[in-house]
Design a protein that fits this description.
This protein is mainly α. It is built from six helices and two strands, in the order ααββαααα. The protein has a two-stranded antiparallel sheet. The longest helix is centred in the C-terminal third of the chain and has 38 residues.
Length: 135
């Protein structure tokens, strides 16, 4: 199938498919005499694999590692190691987001509570601690 058909079947755009190709994640089966790329159902399955992994937050580098492990029919511990590393990264990101949420929630609360006409959110975001026009 042509790139537009393969992309549509995989649920991505042709540009995304070309990008995956540039990254070495998927390769067309060949080219027609016209120069158009040809893809098979196997390539479409690989693209779906890539998209599902990305939906779970795996980076394209991690996806590349998983694809190599898949092609090599690697053992469970090898695949699990990649997933455990990703899980650790997710936990760190969740902790960071939780800290950010708490900080923003405190600023929102301070903005509601204060009698000062100047919003503490703007002051908290200013690295110099000054208000506009007061420098």
């Amino acid at each position: 199938m042509l790139i537009k058909d393969a992309a549509r079947s995989a649920g991505v755009t042709p540009q995304t498919l070309r990008y995956y190709e540039q990254r070495g994640l998927v390769r067309p089966t060949g080219r027609r005499a016209s120069g158009y790329r040809e893809y098979t159902g196997d390539q479409v399955r690989i693209v779906r694999f890539i998209k599902r992994a990305q939906d779970l937050g795996f980076s394209l580098d991690a996806v590349a590692a998983l694809l190599k492990l898949r092609a090599a029919r690697a053992s469970r511990p090898s695949v699990r190691k990649v997933a455990e590393h990703h899980l650790s990264d997710l936990d760190a990101r969740i902790a960071d987001l939780t800290r950010m949420r708490s900080a923003v929630a405190a600023l929102v609360q301070a903005c509601h509570a204060g009698a000062d006409p100047h919003c503490p959110i703007l002051e908290a975001l200013d690295p110099d601690g000054g208000r506009d026009g007061e420098r």
